[in-house]
Each structure stands twice: as C-alpha cells, then as structure tokens.
C-alpha cells in the first residue's frame, strides 16, 4: 500500500497573503511530491494563474467556500482526484471567507466516498491548520466577518504577515487580541509571507481539529461582483475607479489590459492598491480580463460598484460577468 498523504489547511482573511505564503513555501525543499488545492470565493481563479509556475499538481475550486454545501461536491472530487496523483503532501489554500470548522467533517465524508473507490488505497492524514493574519487590516475586518475569528480559533500556527506596515505598539496589541482568541497557538511574525517549511512541520498540530458546524452556507455569502474588462483601459483611469471603490470593497483582484495593451494584474486590499505586469508564467496559464470585487454589504454593493464605474467612465457601459 502506498503511503498516505499529509494534509495541511491554509486559512486567512481576504488579502492576508496566503498565495504569496504558498508561493514562498513551494520554492523550498519540502522533501515531498506536492499537491495543491486553491479555493477562491470569486469565479475568476486569479490565485491559480499566479501560483502555477512550479512542478506540482494543482486543482482550482472557485465561486464559493469549499466548506459550503454549494461546492462541497467539487471539493470532495478534487481531494479524490489528488489521491490518484503521485503526491505525498497536500496543501489546501482556503478562500479568505472560509470557516474551517467543517474540515474534519469533510474528511469523514471523503472516507465514505472512498468506500466506492476500492482502487484508491491511500487516505489523507490531517496535519492541522495554519492561519495568516494581515497585521495592517485585521482590526478593520474582524468584527464584520465571523469567519475570521473561526480561522484564528482553529489554527495551531498563526502567521502575522505584513508586520513591516505597522508600528511595534500596534503589533503588540494585535498579538494580545489573537491570544484572547487562541491562547495556545504559536504566533510567528513575518513579511511577504516568508515562513520556513520546518516551522510548519514543527508547529502545526493535528490535535487542533477543525471540528464543528461551519457558518459557510449558500444563504450567508458576502457581496460579490465580477466585472468584465474586455477592452483596454487607461491605468490612470482604472486606478481612479479602484480608489472610488476603496470604502466599499474589502478585496479586489483581477486582470486587465492597459492603454499599451499590456496584460496587468490588479490587487487591492483595503486602501492598498497594487498594479503590475502579468508574468510569462501567468500568461501561459491563461488569464481572463475580469475583476473580482468583494464587499461587506450585499444590499448596496452592486450599486456601489456601478456608481463608482460611472463616475470614472460615464460613457463606457459596465459589463457584469455571470
């Protein structure tokens, strides 16, 4: 019988740096053949395009949280498919809106599904959960998004990212707040998602299982808008639109073509806006010229997006992607 596959869950709120953390991890000598499942709340699949540049197996699951019944079947199918690949290690990057309390239940469901696949001899070995924290914006979002509290509570390793963007006193206060939520997890401070693989192997504890009922349901979803950007768009004007959305959107990311027809990547967390050219690896993976926007108020977010667009592009129709 082949060896089982070690499984680690990576959580963290929107924009905390999970994909950058995973990128850095995959450049290290992990000593294992690696499989990756990328889960995004939006439908675009931005993280997969950014990440897929190494020698590892990858499955993308978009348009919801893997812990929600809406896409539970896709998640189980992805886990089953990966057991048929030559891997020893599975890393799952959950959506920023994911409540990991359902993880243990999903693994139990998977064991039941495997009863119908006698050709698959291996199983997953749960190793534990890691949570990334945005040092700059944690306090802004904590009270509004219950999933963020759940992510902290169920992790045995908490990685406080972007510590270079806050003062020491603010970082100390954040540590104290995290300790109230989870008194026994190890806390590691870093920048740009840099964490040694050995720290994960030492600090992540399978005893802190993600057991319980998840709050991720089809009825409880944040505000979401997918914006089509088929035509080239001036960088200055596009930046003005992103600034107009700053007070209503908690996360914005996607691809567009600038005035010189260059493929560009847009990444917005809170008030921080980053634009950069698309890499050759991302281009090879395939990019869609769309923008995923996530907000906190489902009742008004659609109108906020359309108002911001019209304020910058009064003569250009907005295109919503289904």
Chain-wise SSE layout:
Blueprint: E1 5-12, H1 18-26, E2 34-39, H2 46-51, E3 57-61, H3 72-83, E4 89-93, H4 103-114, E5 124-134, H5 138-142, H6 146-153, E6 157-161, H7 168-181, E7 186-189, H8 197-203, E8 223-228, H9 235-244, E9 249-257, E10 263-269, E11 272-277, H10 280-285, E12 290-295, H11 301-312
Helix pairs in contact: 3-4, 9-11
Feature tags:
322 residues; alpha/beta; Rossmann fold; Hypothetical Protein Yjia, Chain: A,domain 2; 2 domains; 7-stranded parallel beta sheet; 5-stranded antiparallel beta sheet; 11 helices; 12 strands
Would you kindly provide a brief summary of this structure?
The chain has 322 residues and is of the alpha/beta class. The protein is built from 11 helices and 12 strands. Helix 7 (168-181) links the parallel strand 6 (157-161) and strand 7.
SSE arrangement, N to C: EHEHEHEHEHHEHEHEHEEEHEH
- What is the CATH top level name of the largest domain? Alpha Beta
Q: Which sequence of strands runs across the widest sheet? A: 3-2-4-1-5-6-7
- Overall average residue pLDDT: 87
Main pleated-sheet profile:
7 strands, parallel
Distance between the termini: 45 Å
What is the C-alpha radius of gyration, as a whole number of Å?
20 Å
The total of helices stands at 11
- Count the domains: 2
Name the shape in a single word. Answer: globular
How much helical structure, as a percent, in the residues?
Answer: 25-40%
| CATH fold-level topology of the largest domain | Rossmann fold
Strand content: 15-25%
Low-confidence stretches: none
Second CATH tier, the architecture of the largest domain:
3-Layer(aba) Sandwich
